Each structure stands twice: as structure tokens, then as C-alpha cells.
Amino acid sequence: MLKKSCEWIYRRIATVLFRLFGRRNKTGLFFFESFHGKQYSGNPKAIYEYLKEHYPEFECIWAVKKGYEAPFKQNQVPYVRRMSLKWMYTMARAQYWVVNTRLPLWMEKSKHTIYVQTWHGTPLKKLGLDIQSVTMHGTNTRKYHKDIKQESLRWDYLVSPNQYSTPIFRRAFNYDGPVLEEGYPSNDVFIREAKKPVLGVEIRQKLGLSTETPIVLYAPTWRDNQHNGHGGYSFENQFPFDELLALDPSLVILTRMHYLVEDSADEASENSRVWNMSKYPEIADLFLIADYLITDYSTVMFDFLLMEKPIFLYMYDYEVYKQEIRGLYLTKEDPLPGKVVLTKSDLISEFSQALKTADGTKFSHKLDTSAYVKKEEATFNVIKAIIGG
């Protein structure tokens, strides 16, 4: 009870300070945040790095949650500690907010601020108002839908990765403002790498992985109904690590958990060939070195399409997820970006077959990728739309 009272007092004070500081708008100041201050990654990172190189006249500052400062220090990225007084002062005054998740409503935006919501994926699982029964911690369906509507009212721009996502975003977020359907800035690296495939080799060398080592990236999403009892979420591992590793003595599996359950990767496996990469700064690096992606309902499947490598969709709880947890825009009967497998034995069998073939399973399902993938670089066009020239 005391903790909740302190949080309420903090938010009331923060709301007043946001309003006060927001009157002192600073032109040319960009404020960035990725996954609630936990990462230096995604669309905000791509936009930030482009601005630093091509528009040095802009000031750029990041919000960072306490304990997650390492990649910002390593890359000499200017930041303020999230929830600090300096953070409030900086964020409230910024001319631009560039964020890839929803922000709490008490973080009030001044009329001078341009809020750019970049989001972070092409949706397979249902979003926002499309979720009919919300099972997330600390909310209910009515409150969640209300918060979605209030949040999207603040957005000045919404970045969409493709034509498939745009109508879903508009409906699910109840958003009728400008949509920048340019593709995701964070995916530009894959387009560039296709022309000059050397970055993947460099990343492997940095991590101490041979270019001959077959790499699986396991990147599942979270489950709304798996609460950990502490206001967060857990992840019940159903992945056959040891069985897959037994198929090839040189195989390495990189685990990349959703940011809401990233600590669950520590319990995934004790095998030395299973590497926990959940806190690795940039998932794009892992895409570039992975030979295979195994996911479930995560949006990463659509981004990984640009790599033109085999994808497996391990949907072991398919019926429960579709009917009770979140719901899906596309079902297993629809053309999907990967091979759907519903059991451990099927995953092992299908993956074993992929290892025996020259190019894995690729896209034997004949998916038309044109609706999901934009093969033109996005960052310049997004920035041009935001700053107006």
C-alpha cells in the first residue's frame, strides 16, 4: 500500500513538472526512448544515428532506465536517467519524441512537441482495441482500450512498416493521424547488407563465432497471462534445446526473449551452446548472423523475411493463444512467413530436415512477401516527413 501511495504521489508531482517544463520548449531537441528505456535499439536507434551523421545541428538525448546504461556509455550516446528530474526537464521541453512503445499517460506532451510513434513490428498477434479480452497484469479490457485511445490522441506521426500493417494500426490504435508507411528504419541495415554482406562476418568475429558455425536464433514473444507475481511477466520454456543441439555438434542457439520477459532466458538451458542474447543491444545483429529463425507469434518473423533465410513458427500453444490469450490476425491456415510446427517432435523433425538441405525450408509456402516487406531504405523518408524537408 505504501509503495502504491508513493507511486501515486510521484506521478502527480511529475505531471505538474511536465506541464511546467513543457512551457520552455527547446527547438531542435530530439528525445529518444526504446522499450521503456531498456535498449539502445530499433527504429529510434536508426533515426538517431542518421540524424547524428546527416543533421548534426539537432540535439539528441535518450531516456535510459537505471541499470541499462552500458550500451549508451559504450557508444557514447548522450542520455538521462529515466524518471529523474533531469529526464522530466529534458523530455518535457523536447521538440520531438521518438518512441517505439506506448508511454504512460501521465507523461504529458506539450502542444509544442511532435510525438513520433515508430512502433516495433508487423503484427501477427492482435493489438490494442482488437484484443477482445485483455489478460495483461494490472489492467482490464475496458481500461486497456480506454488507455489505447487516449495514448494515440497524442501521436503526431505513426511509422508503419508495410501496407498490411497500416489498416491494422489505424483500427487497433484508434488512430486517424498521419501514417508514414515507409518501412522500418531499423530494417535498413538488412537492405544495405544485401548489397555488401560483410557486417554479418564482422559480428560473428566479434562474438567469437566461426563463419562455418550454424546459428539458430530463438526469439519468442511473451504471454499476456503468465504473470510473475511482481507486476511483470514470466515465460514457461517449452523449447527443445538439447534435442536440437544433438542434431549437429557445431550448432549454436542464441536466445532472444521479449523485453518483458528477458530474464527468463537465464533459465532456458545450461548447455554451453545456448547463448542468452536477450540483453544484447541490437537484435538486427543477431538477424545478420543467424542461419535460422525459430519464433512463435512474434513480429520478428516479418522483419527476418528480409534475410531470406528459413523461419520456423513453433506454436505449441496455438489454440490457447488464438482463443484465450491474445488472438491472431493470420491463422496457421493462412500463408505465413515460416513453417508452422505445433509440437516439439515436429519442430525437431522439420529442423533436422532443414539441416540436411542446402538452403533449408525457405519459403516453400509460396508467401507473397510484397505486402509485408519494403525493400527501400526508410530512415531518410521518415526523418524528412518529421522535420519537413
Can you tell me about this structure?
The protein has 389 residues and is of the alpha/beta class. It is built from 14 helices and 13 strands. The protein has helices at 2-21, 42-54, 70-74, 85-93, 141-152, 165-172, 188-195, 199-207, 241-245, 283-289, 300-303, 318-325, 344-356, 379-387; strands at 26-33, 59-64, 79-81, 94-99, 114-117, 157-160, 179-181, 215-218, 252-255, 274-276, 292-295, 311-314, 339-341. The chain has a seven-stranded parallel sheet with strand order 3-2-1-4-5-6-7, with helices on both faces. Strands 10-9-8-11-12-13 form a six-stranded parallel sheet, sandwiched between helices. The longest helix is centred in the first third of the chain and has 20 residues, at 2-21. It is globular and about 65 Å long.
What distinguishing features does this structure have?
single chain; 14% strand; alpha/beta; globular; 7-stranded parallel sheet
Furnish the topology, listing elements before pairings.
Elements (H helix, E strand, L loop, with lengths): L1 H20 L4 E8 L8 H13 L4 E6 L5 H5 L4 E3 L3 H9 E6 L14 E4 L23 H12 L4 E4 L4 H8 L6 E3 L6 H8 L3 H9 L7 E4 L22 H5 L6 E4 L18 E3 L6 H7 L2 E4 L4 H4 L7 E4 L3 H8 L13 E3 L2 H13 L22 H9 L2
Parallel strand pairs: 1-2, 1-4, 2-3, 4-5, 5-6, 6-7, 8-9, 8-11, 9-10, 11-12, 12-13
Q: Taking Cα atoms only, what radius of gyration do you get, to the nearest Å?
A: 21 Å
- How many helix segments? 14
Question: Percent range for helical residues?
Answer: 25-40%
Form type: globular
Quaternary structure? single chain
Q: Strand order of the main beta sheet, please? A: 3-2-1-4-5-6-7
Query: H/E element string?
Result: HEHEHEHEEHEHEHHEHEEHEHEHEHH
Uncertain segments are: none
Number of strands: 13
Instruction: Give the structural class.
Output: alpha/beta
Which percent band covers the strand fraction?
5-15%
- Main sheet makeup: 7 strands, parallel
Q: Give the N-terminus to C-terminus distance in angstroms.
A: 51 Å
Mean pLDDT across residues: 91
